[in-house]
Amino acid sequence: MDDRARHQWVATHVLPHEAEVRAWLRRHVHSLSPSDIDDLIQDAYARLWSVEFTHITNARGYLFAIIRNLLLENARRARIVPMERLGEIEMLRIPSEEPGPDRRVSARQELERLERMVAGLPAQCRRAFQLQKFQCLSQRQIALTMNITERTVEKYLATALERVLDALKQDGEGAMGRPESGTSGHESKQSTD
Amino acid sequence: MNRSNRRIDSEATEWAVRSHTRALSAAEQAELDRWLEANPRHRGAYLRAGAAWMDLDRLAAMAGPKELPLADRPAKSSSPISRRVALAASVVVMVLGGVSAWWAHRHHNVYVSEAGQVRQVALADGSHMVLNTETRATVQYDDAHREIDLARGEGFFQVARDPVRPFVVRTGAISIRAIGTVFSVRSSHHRVDVTVSEGMVELVDNSNPDHVIRRRLGANEQATVEETHRFEVQRLEESEVSRRLGWREGLLDFEGQPLIEAVNEMNRRNHKHIVVDDPLLAARPVVGQFLANDPAGFAATVAVALGAQSVEQDDAIHLRRVN
């Protein structure tokens, strides 16, 4: 199913770069509120919805390019944006390198983060999540085991997933993953070299 | 986060969970389709949530299954099945803790390149690895070893000297030990090719424990090991070696260089030249990977990305701004 393949592709190639993109936006486009950044990210994923992803070999660069184009489109649409503002966005350099192996979030850190997320869930919600993801029980089995409705099981699972999505966001702020300083060395400065 | 994208995220997670964990009813599918159709941001949030849900499977696979002492039994269980399940669930948390500690000891990274992709990897010790299309390599470094496991595909290795930690590439029963070297290994179904362009490697075939075969290979030598485990070594011309390793140059990777620089890179490699007719356009950044020998494809792709127009004229390709 194409839908699954697309989700898998995004999971492998795009999600790992989301925190870096958010950090980059915070650092370089100061006028954006956290909510603007959330909107931009949703818009960026919306573009990925229809793109022929099998042709994309550099997903990270592609994600940055989409974000940059969205910024330009938004700036143009706003009209009142002074010319230098547009120029500024045009000048924004995409960080040239991926964080090195030591800077990338390691498998250990990922597992720790998951562990923390799981530990922070309300008890019932945690249990449903663990049964689903680690014991591979179906909604029906979980519902029977926990004596709740399947609908409630799904609510719990969705809550857990929301926490995961929040964690993805905070990553670049140093709250959970690598520290903020970890990426700054890899930014290319705005320059005309 | 404002209320609107918070609400979208929350709806998206519910849909993602449902569609990824069970079959949707026809009515649900129709409702999901309607919801997705209603707003591009719904699609974005759903894609992001679905991807994150699938990524959890990877993490879950990484965490489990490990036998660990059971603890933290629930005080009361209503039925035998629920007790068993609850027990299992408490094990999961411990497994996660155990695995974290285990991961801390070994540095273990998996690199995968997909069809048409050439992937450059800077390794922690200063060595350089390039993966050709459809390759999977696992890198394991510790205090005494540098090991690469090539499950499939082709890798090129430029090895940094380290007398304490040998650099070994394994593929199946074959291992190649580098001695300050530049070399490539290609692993297909029935054969392994090792090509050395600088220095020396030692090739070891361990498939028969009673008869381990060792062979040293020097610069411009290529060894082929077939399934029959016969070695065939041939000397190659230097030009042939560089031709065989030419795939490394097959793709040009731009990470936001000005268009004019990217065009110069392309023009250096091709007879058909690209001309940028507009200074503003020339300064726009280019992102992406391109076939080095396909200027027309490069121009067409870049034109779309930068809102330009690609026109072939007088034996050259002109990139112009559209206004």
Please describe what this structure looks like:
The complex is a heterodimer of chains A (193) and B (323). Chain A has 193 residues and is mainly alpha-helical. Chain A has 2 domains: 2-103; 107-173, Arc Repressor Mutant, subunit A (Orthogonal Bundle), CATH 1.10.10. Helix content of chain A is 67%, strand content 0%. Chain A is built from 10 helices and no strands. In chain A, helix 7 packs across helix 9 (150-170). The termini of chain A are far apart. Mean pLDDT of chain A is 75; it is low at 172-193. Chain B is α+β, with helices and mostly antiparallel strands. Chain B has 4 domains: 3-63, no CATH class; 65-105, no CATH class; 109-246, Jelly Rolls (Sandwich), CATH 2.60.120.1440; 250-321, Phage tail protein beta-alpha-beta fold. Chain B contains 8 helices and 16 strands. In chain B, the strands form 3 sheets. In chain B, strands 1, 2, 3, 4, 5, 6, 7, 8, 9, 10 and 11 form an 11-stranded mixed sheet that branches. In chain B, strand 2 (119-122) and strand 3 (128-131) form a beta hairpin. In chain B, helix 1 (3-21) crosses helix 3 and helix 2 crosses helix 3 (40-63). The radius of gyration of chain B is 27 Å and the shape is flat.
Short description:
The complex is a heterodimer of chains A (193) and B (323). Chain A is 67% helix and 0% strand.
- Count of DSSP E strands of chain A? 0
Count of DSSP-assigned helices of chain B: 8
Give the N-to-C terminal Cα separation of chain B: 37 Å
Percent in strands of chain B: 35-45%
Q: Secondary-structure blueprint of this entry?
A:
The complex is a heterodimer of chains A (193) and B (323).
Chain A: H1 2-13, H2 15-28, H3 34-50, H4 59-78, H5 83-91, H6 107-120, H7 123-133, H8 139-146, H9 150-170, H10 181-184
Helix pairs in contact in A: 3-4, 4-5, 6-9, 7-8, 7-9, 8-9
Chain B: H1 3-21, H2 26-38, H3 40-63, H4 80-105, E1 107-113, E2 119-122, E3 128-131, E4 135-141, E5 146-158, E6 167-171, E7 174-187, E8 191-205, E9 213-217, E10 221-226, E11 231-235, H5 238-244, E12 251-258, H6 259-269, E13 273-276, H7 279-282, E14 285-291, H8 295-306, E15 308-313, E16 316-321
Parallel strand pairs in B: 5-6, 13-16
Antiparallel strand pairs in B: 1-4, 2-3, 3-5, 4-5, 5-7, 6-7, 7-8, 8-9, 8-10, 10-11, 12-14, 15-16
Helix pairs in contact in B: 1-3, 2-3
